[in-house]
Amino acid sequence: MQDRHSTVYRMILYGIGFLLFCEWLRPLEMISQTDDVRIFFIFAAFCFFVSFLQVPWYLSMPLKGLGVAFILDGLYIGELIFSPGWFAVLTEQVTFNIQMISGQEWWQMTPLFRSLLFLILLWLMSYLLYYWFVVARRMFFFVLLTILFVAVVDTFTVYDGSWAIIRTFVIGMAALGLSSFAKEMDKESIVFKGLHKAKVWLFPLIGVILFSSAAAYASPKFAPQWPDPVPYLESAAGGTGSGGGRTIQKVGYGEDDSQLGGSFVQDDTPIFTATVDGDRYWRIESKDTYTGKGWTDTLEQPVMTTDPFDIPFSTFTEEVETETQTAQIEMTRFASFRKLVYPYGLTSVGNLEGEFNLRVHNNTGEMDTYQGDAPAKISTAELTYEFPSFEYSQLRESGNNDPQEIRDQYLQLPENLPERVRNLASQIVEGEDNRYDQAKAVERYFSANGFEYSTTDVPVPGDDEDYVDQFLFESQIGYCDNYSTSMVVLLRSEGIPARWVKGFTGGERIDSVENEEGDGVQNVYEVTSGNAHSWVEVYFPDVGWVPFEPTQGFSNNADFYTDVDVEETEEDPAAGAADDTQDETMGNPQQVEEEDEASGNADEASSSGSTTFTAVLTGTVLLAAGILLYVTRYRWMAALLIRRYRRSEDEETYEKAYHFLLKVLNHKGLKRKPDQTLRDYALKVDQHFQSNEMRRLTSNYERVIYGNESQKTQWQKVTELWENLIKKTLS
User: Where are the membrane-spanning stretches (predicted)?
Assistant: First the structure.
């Protein structure tokens, strides 16, 4: 009965260890190039189960090896498993990767070999955690490591560890509580009979865990002492850039744009998929007021609640030629905002899962999605829209007769805008006699004057610096926010109404399907957090708001055309069309940077593309090595001490060796009681090992320490006694 209870206890403790280990696997999908981590969870559970059963090594190794083989076969090898061709592929892969490692070309390692190394690591961890949790009952160190790991990954990557920290705390408390209870039972030599008495200690343990967790979650907390630890560390190391430092953010759609600037880390988390006729920019909102540091929205009102089937908002007039099209969107669980993403010309939203209404901000175009009076996220929807086509001559001839309301709202600039920004705007548009060509001149200015697209090493303006001024004249490095904000400010400086717009680019095409009418094909695009983007809209009288794209590496997907019935102007409109169709491929920030790097140095691009995985792999290997060294510390420390013991024949070394033996015996469960003499303890040890070696070694030790006798004549015999006891204890 007692054995059964012990097995249940070990099973619970080991299960808790597995749950903690799972917290190490969860971030892999987001911080590495791992598409699906479920196979690693399954293999880890299998290894943990085999280790728990304490299957002999000559059976457990083949079982786990078969697991590795089946996983590699299913993921990478097309040959029949265990056939000559299968072994040939595996041998070729291993040989190639060993050569790459020996040449320190880590980025050349193949996915098969990386997976093989990771599976072997899971194999080793299953044994180490069994020893740590069940045999040694020392789980505090692993609990602490898990909390540190989650905190570091949450801080320096795109992984959100908020709930992971809570899970780790609760699981860790349970593990430490069970371990402490078992140690007290062993210490007092109490036999716990009958699981029906578990409530004596189980209920208080659960109560303490629940109370501690609830109190920690509900109690007020200090605001972050470091708004972002990365720039804090960089500044401490002397790595601040111009403008007083940098901030590292996670790329993605956010609502607070009052402080722009700083670097961000890429995030390829899918936000939604869109089935649509072609590349489309997905609009969310515009903002009107530039503060010198970022953007705020002073035009939130009026807000109109409307039926999704009849949307009154439009960015252009009826004078613009349009074509009716449809698109289907499907939001993922990672989309946290309760707003509609939509293409230009949206007229209705259908096929909604539930009763929704839209609260449309008439000025900004922001459309909040509601069910009743509560904000709610739309899962799937069919969008009907009038896709606009803008005619070049119409834009060039639209004039400057803007409504007073437009001028009041979209010519705003901060009073302290540096004068050199206004002077630059005048220089850029000099010689252009119409609004369209002036806007195109500003749009082309960045690509023609050495500006660099980058998401890293982007400065933040200081207290006395203007965001646009810093980008135009100091850094000339940045991403979409820098380019789009600068274009709006330059246009407003010349009296041209313009506004800043946020949303997503078209994403990556992943499939194509036949449309509902059966007479054409629509493309399926995956839009991720990395596709979050900002661009510019310029106002043209009698036309409305027209999108422009100043950011390098991105192309304007708006449709422009030339009316053949209209007499050509002195400047061939076809030339303007060529400017507008730069590149049909619209990338996200990560794609743009990769293309720039590839054009300059292909090897460097390959290396940087695998930096994240290499860092994770290196960190994992170092962590595993540290764990292995800690677990086996008594073995390698004993080996080192044996070598030293043999070379040095002095009483100090002898005393240290004897004390080390006592530590090893205590670690293995042969603890010396506080009131126990060395001779009584030596008798207990000899009874355990059925020998008299400990008593003989202790007798020599007492003569050396208390009798001041030299043992150099007995040194070889004493050394053998000590080595034998160490080996027996560690075996």
Answer: 7-27, 39-59, 66-87, 112-133, 140-158, 164-181, 201-219, 613-636
- Determine the Cα–Cα distance for residues 204 and 211; give it in Å rounded to an integer: 10
How many helices and strands (H and E) does the chain possess?
Answer: 25, 21
Q: Which residues contact 94 (CB under 8 A, 6 or more apart)?
A: 113, 116
Cα(201)–Cα(184) distance, integer angstroms: 12
Query: Angle, nearest 10°, between helix axes 111-130 and 611-631?
Result: 30
Regarding beta strands 357-361 and 346-350, do their DSSP bridges make them parallel or antiparallel, or are they unpaired?
Answer: unpaired
As given in the structure block, the two tokens for residue 335 are 């989309």
Instruction: Specify the range with the lowest mean pLDDT, choosing from 255-264, 294-303, 499-508, 715-724.
Output: 715-724
Q: Across the strands, what pairs with 544?
A: 316, 540
Contacts of 517 (CB under 8 A, 6+ apart): none
Angle, alpha carbons 37-38-40 (nearest 5°) = 70
Look at strands 477-478 and 452-453 and give their pairing.
parallel
Rounded to whole angstroms, how far apart are CA atoms 191 and 3?
11
> CB-based contacts of 579: which residues, under 8 Å, 6+ apart?
440, 444
CA distances from 384 to 26, 41, 89, 309, 427 (A): 39, 43, 51, 9, 42
Tell me how far apart the terminal alpha carbons of the chain are, to the nearest angstrom. Answer: 29
Helix ranges restricted to H, 26-160: 28-31, 38-52, 57-75, 84-102, 111-130, 140-156
Measured in whole angstroms, the distance separating CA 119 from the mean position of its chain's CA atoms is 22
Angle at 664 between CA 660 and CA 666, to 5 degrees: 115
What token pair was written down for 252?
């993605």
Q: Are strands 248-250 and 263-265 parallel, antiparallel or unpaired?
A: parallel
How far apart, in whole angstroms, are the C-alpha atoms of residue 417 and residue 413? 7
Amino acid 110: pLDDT: 82
Secondary structure (3-state) at 167: helix
* Beta-bridge mates of residue 514: 521
Are residues 442 and 430 in contact, defined by beta-carbon separation less than 8 angstroms?
A: no
**Is residue 62 reached through a cis peptide bond, with omega within 30 degrees of 0 on the bond before it?**
no
- Calculate the alpha carbon distances from 101 to 114, 517, 586, 676 in Å: 11, 55, 36, 55
Name the packing angle between helices 589-600 and 602-609 (round to 10°): 140
**What digits encode the pLDDT tens for the residues 158-209?**
778 888 888 888 888 887 887 777 666 666 655 555 445 556 667 777 788 7
d(CA 59, CA 593): 50
Which helix (H) or strand (E) element contains residue 633?
helix 633-647
For β-strands 380-391 and 559-561, DSSP reports them as parallel
DSSP conformation letters of 176-207: HHHHHHHHHHHHTT-----GGGTHHHHHHHHH
Here the tokens at position 652 are 């100090």
Tokens, residue 496: 């041209």
Residues 424, 365: Cα–Cα separation, whole Å? 31
Which residues are bridge partners to 391 per DSSP?
Answer: 561
Is residue 525 a contact partner of residue 308, using CB atoms and an 8 Å limit? no
Of 246, 281, 275, residue with least CA distance to 263: 246
CA distance 331 to 376: 12
Query: How many Cβ atoms sit within 10 Å of the Cβ of residue 645?
Result: 21
Instruction: Please give the residue that has the higher pLDDT: either 126 or 33.
Output: 126
**Whole-angstrom Cα distance, residue 64 to residue 175?**
26
Confidence of residue 457 (pLDDT cuts 50, 70, 90): confident
Structure tokens at 707: 């009798």
